[in-house]
């Protein structure tokens, strides 16, 4: 693996079939992301942010051009290989947390590790570490229904981080949170980004998120209109 | 992973308790229905045995060939000796004489002229001798409507309806006009002792029960009878034992060249019944099929609902890198588990009820005003070995089928829309 290059996108086009032709959601995009970035796609609704994350996350494939994620060409990935890539190296954070209601906080965070052939004691340590990162060590045994929205999203972050993925994709992670909770969450992610060198890529139109980004990629109608380093 | 999913299964009652209940109920009903049907079959067999065929039946070869015509001219001769011989050969069995006969029955007025007349179909059995079990065997006690049992060879029972038609009451004379064994005309006076209700239309229209010695006198059949019925020790028909008896007897007594030599046939050879045996198998098959179908639809639906409720879970599992096939298989695994648990409980419950129905019986005698001779008033179930495993077929099959149908959605699911789905 080229050490610093995590994602390399070149000439990427994504078209969706539409009545009477195609709709171009992403149009000839070239981008690279290096290790440890804290970047985000920003743009109005329908600009292609989620489509972009989908392709990087191996959940969808490009129509033209290619996307290389951690040395895997997304175009050529079998569904088995794509599952392996997600399992080992990618973490996802969704707008609606998607915690499993019948499991405790601990179990929800443990879930991704079950696919990774780790011993129970290794898993336990990893889960407790992850819950400590997000400040929920005291809620280990709670059920999601007993948590606030902000706490739920922190559990979701712990679940995405617990296997220490190389890349975390977060689509509108603060959409359901008030501003206090949003800041808390973003601080948590910022800290994890620094401590673990995990690369974060967001999709958002929330100003609170945008303020934290170190690289802001503006999308409009499927095209990159600006790609700026905001701060270091 | 498996333990993790199992934990979820236990905690989510909609996923575990509900389907287990559905399977349990369905399986219990399947088992019960099966036992009930085999119970009815067994009762019918027993009934046929007691009433007309015995567990084994001895006739002359010629009589057997024309037995539907009740050819008393082809009856067995030297019956007393034959019976005492076979009684020695099969000491555990009981052999009884029967004569089926037909003719006209005449009720005379006080001048001896015909008042009313009707076609009669009768059975002659041993009603009078001291140790006879025939009255009990034919359930005569419960079926008696008027009068009493015959105490002398010339006393008879008529169906209640027939007696009314002939305008006779207990104590009145009736005249049987039939033919003797040798083809001559037989006219014999009897006294009506009592009336009974057969519970079968044909017999209620024209049925008569007479004592065997009375009929032997009337039809000139001394030491002769149409049929000898043999009963095994146990009222339950045992085809293997009956077959052994049949073979032993036929080897010893049957002479293929002699039209009048006795031959034995066992109950299962009765053409009506052998069809019955197959019918029961078919019914059980239909019941199982119907339950599989009905339960599959119910479970498919609850699987779909469960699938909807688990949409998030499945989406998440796809997102964290679990493969579709693995998710699908784990759901099938859950289904098998639910099927086994539900089937086991259901089988136990079904067997419990069946056992109760087998031992205590469902007595509909209380619901019906009077018991009838040819209608069993107690329905009993019968537990046969298939009842122990039969329920597992629909139990397992339907959950697995239901889950497989519901699970097709997993394969249809596009990972491309995961972010979207999990966000709305
Ligand atoms: N599966 C699909 N089929 C057809 N069109 C699609 C599909 N997915 C996305 N699109 C279209 O592509 C465009 C970009 O969609 P995308 O979801 O990437 O937007 P977005 O920037 O994430 O918007 P939002 O901020 O509302 O989430 C939209 O016009 C959308 O209608
Ligand atoms: Mg979006």
Notes on the structure:
The complex is a heterodimer of chains A (232) and B (424). Chain A is α/β, with parallel strands linked by helices. Chain A contains 7 helices and 10 strands. In chain A, the strands form 2 sheets. Chain A has a 6-stranded mixed beta sheet, sandwiched between helices. Chain A has a 4-stranded antiparallel beta sheet with strand order 2-1-4-5, covered by helices on one side. In chain A, strand 7, helix 6 and strand 8 (199-204) form a beta-alpha-beta unit. The longest helix of chain A is centred in the last third of the chain and has 18 residues, at 179-196. In chain B, the strands form 3 sheets. Chain B has a 6-stranded mixed barrel. Chain B folds into 2 domains: 2-47 and 276-423, no CATH class; 56-231, no CATH class. Chain B is elongated, with a radius of gyration of 31 Å. The mean pLDDT of chain B is 86. Chain B is built from 16 helices and 14 strands. Chain A binds chain B through residues 50, 53-54, 57-60, 79-80, 82-88, 90, 92, 94-96, 98, 100, 102-103, 107, 110-112, 114-115, 171-172, 175, and chain B through 1, 4, 7-8, 11-12, 312-313, 315-316, 318-324, 415-416, 418-420, 422-424. The complex binds adenosine-5'-triphosphate and magnesium ion (MG). Adenosine-5'-triphosphate binds at residues 16, 23, 25, 43, 45-51, 203, 205 of chain A.
TL;DR of this structure?
The complex is a heterodimer of chains A (232) and B (424). Helices cover 33% and strands 30% of the residues of chain A.
Low-confidence stretches of chain A: none
Could you tell me the radius of gyration of chain A in angstroms? Answer: 18 Å
**Record field, number of beta strands of chain A:** 10
What letter string, H or E per element, gives the SSE order of chain A?
EEEHEEHEHHHEHEHEE
Low-confidence runs of chain B (pLDDT<50, min 5 residues)?
none
């Amino acid at each position: 693996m080229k050490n610093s290059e995590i994602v390399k996108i070149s000439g990427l086009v994504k078209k969706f079939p539409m009545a009477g032709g195609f709709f171009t959601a992403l149009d000839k995009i070239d981008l690279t992301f290096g290790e440890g970035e804290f970047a985000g796609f920003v743009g109005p609704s329908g600009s292609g942010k989620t489509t972009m994350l989908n392709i990087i996350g191996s959940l969808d494939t490009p129509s033209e051009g290619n996307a290389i994620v951690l040395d895997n060409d997304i175009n050529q990935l079998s569904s088995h290989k794509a599952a392996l890539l997600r399992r080992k190296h990618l973490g996802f954070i969704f707008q609606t947390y998607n915690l499993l209601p019948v499991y405790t906080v601990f179990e929800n965070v443990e879930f991704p590790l079950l696919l990774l052939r780790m011993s129970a004691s290794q898993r336990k340590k990893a889960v407790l570490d992850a819950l400590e990162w997000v400040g929920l060590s005291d809620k280990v045994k709670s059920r999601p229904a007993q948590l606030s929205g902000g706490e739920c999203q922190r559990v979701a972050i712990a679940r995405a981080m617990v296997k220490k993925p190389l890349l975390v994709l977060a689509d509108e992670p603060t959409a359901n949170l008030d501003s206090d909770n949003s800041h808390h969450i973003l601080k948590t992610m910022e800290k994890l980004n620094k401590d673990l060198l995990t690369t974060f890529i967001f999709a958002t139109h929330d100003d609170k998120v945008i303020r934290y980004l170190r690289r802001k990629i503006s999308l409009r109608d499927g095209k990159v209109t600006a790609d700026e380093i905001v701060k270091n | 992973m498996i333990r993790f999913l199992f934990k979820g299964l236990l905690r989510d009652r909609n996923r575990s308790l509900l389907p287990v209940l559905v399977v349990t109920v369905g399986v219990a009903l399947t088992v019960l229905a099966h036992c009930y049907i085999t119970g009815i079959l067994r009762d019918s067999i027993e009934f046929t045995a007691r009433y007309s065929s015995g567990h084994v039946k001895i006739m002359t070869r010629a009589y057997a060939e024309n037995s539907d015509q009740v050819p008393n001219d082809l009856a067995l001769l030297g019956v007393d000796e034959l019976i005492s011989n076979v009684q020695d050969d099969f000491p555990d069995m009981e052999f009884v004489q029967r004569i089926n006969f037909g003719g006209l029955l005449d009720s005379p007025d006080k001048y001896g002229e015909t008042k009313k007349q009707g076609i009669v179909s009768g059975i002659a059995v041993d009603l009078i001798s001291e140790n006879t079990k025939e009255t009990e065997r034919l359930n005569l006690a419960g079926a008696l409507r008027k009068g009493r049992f015959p105490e002398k060879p010339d006393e008879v029972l008529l169906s209640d309806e027939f007696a009314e038609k002939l305008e006779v009451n207990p104590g009145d004379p009736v005249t049987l006009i039939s033919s003797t064994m040798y083809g001559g005309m037989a006219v014999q006076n009897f006294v009506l002792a009592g009336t009974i209700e057969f519970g079968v239309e044909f017999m209620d229209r024209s049925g008569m029960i007479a004592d065997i010695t009375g009929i032997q006198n009337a039809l000139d059949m001394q030491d002769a009878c149409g049929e000898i019925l043999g009963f095994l020790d146990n009222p339950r028909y045992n085809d293997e034992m009956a077959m052994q008896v049949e073979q032993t007897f036929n080897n010893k007594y049957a002479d293929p060249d002699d039209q009048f030599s006795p031959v034995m046939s066992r109950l299962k050879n009765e053409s009506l019944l052998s069809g019955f045996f197959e019918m029961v198998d078919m019914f059980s098959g239909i019941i199982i099929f119907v339950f599989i179908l009905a339960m599959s639809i119910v479970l498919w639906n609850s699987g779909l609902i469960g699938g909807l409720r688990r949409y998030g879970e499945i989406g998440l599992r796809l997102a964290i890198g679990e493969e579709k096939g693995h998710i699908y298989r784990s759901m099938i695994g859950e289904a098998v588990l639910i099927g086994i648990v539900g089937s086991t409980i259901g089988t136990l419950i079904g067997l419990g009820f069946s056992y109760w129905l087998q031992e205590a019986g469902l007595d509909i005698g209380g619901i019906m005003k009077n018991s009838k001779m040819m209608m069993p008033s107690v329905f009993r179930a019968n537990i046969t070995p298939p009842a122990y495993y039969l329920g597992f077929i629909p139990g397992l099959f339907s959950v697995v089928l239901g889950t497989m149908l519901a699970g097709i959605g997993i394969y249809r699911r596009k990972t491309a829309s995961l972010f979207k789905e999990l966000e709305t």
